[in-house]
Amino acid sequence: VPGNSDAAVYRKANSAWNKVSGIDNNSFVVGDAKNANVFYAYNRTTGAFYKSTDKGASFVKVSEPGTSNDKKFRSIPGYEGDLWLPVAVRDDNGNPKNGSLKHSTDGGATWTDANGMGYCEAVGYGISKTGKGYPAIYAFGKVDDVLGVFVSDDQGATWTRVNDDAHEYGGLAN
After folding, report:
1. Rounded CA gap, 76 and 83, in Å?
2. Residue 111, Cβ neighbours under 10 Å: how many?
3. Which of 16, 36, 68, 130 is the most core-located residue (most Cβ within 10 A)?
């Protein structure tokens, strides 16, 4: 709500603003890319992950994938409950310290680390190599201790570097 400085999150439904229960404004919220009734929220400072099944009116904690310096995660179009969450912890100088890229196929209840991807700051998706099926996953993180932009065409099982040391480019806006 404009002008409101409390820690609450609000949603607009039926021309009215209502306070959301279960999360605060430290949470980053994403809608499920297949089910319009489902929303997810991640609080990077506490490491808690939440789910709403009532169009974002209320959230319940479903897991704790870990704290991170970054907050944005992604829901994969066409796949209900399919989520990718980058976890990045940086040292006091802003350098990569540790982390992972986490994947959930059950709406955030459980998470697995993407194979080979360590520290990860950002994740996104794009058209698959074949143009159909599961999308390509793009991530800015570390694979084999190399920091760069990587793509996976097999749901995070393997990673190929997209950039190289001679062709760096801007950040991924996390």
Report:
1. 6
2. 22
3. 68
8 A C-beta contact, residue 71 and residue 111? no
Quick one: pLDDT band at residue 1, thresholds 50, 70, 90?
Answer: very low
pLDDT at 31 over 60: yes
pTM to 2 decimal places: 0.90
CB 66 within 8 A of CB 111: no
**Contact call for residues 117 and 159 (beta carbons, < 8 A):** yes
End-to-end CA distance of the chain: 24
Check: CB of residue 13 under 8 Å from CB of residue 57: yes
Cα four-point dihedral sign 153, 155, 158, 161: positive
